[in-house]
Amino acid sequence: MEKTIFIGNGINLLSNGNPTWRAVLESLANFVDNSDVDLSNIEEKPFPYVFEEIYLQAARSKGVKEIALKKYAAKLINNIPNNEYHLQILNSNLRHIITTNYDYNLEDSFSKQYKPTNMKRETKYSLFRRRIQNDKNIWYIHGEASYPNSLMLGHEHYAGSLQKMRSYLTRNKKISPFMQGNHLFDNNGINYSWVDVFLRDDIYIVGYQMDYSEIDIWWLLSYKERKKLQGKSVGKTTYYQFQNNKLDNRTRAKLSLLSSFGVRVQLVLIANDYRPGYDLILNEIL
Question: Which residues pair with 137 in a beta bridge?
Answer without folding.
Answer: 96, 132
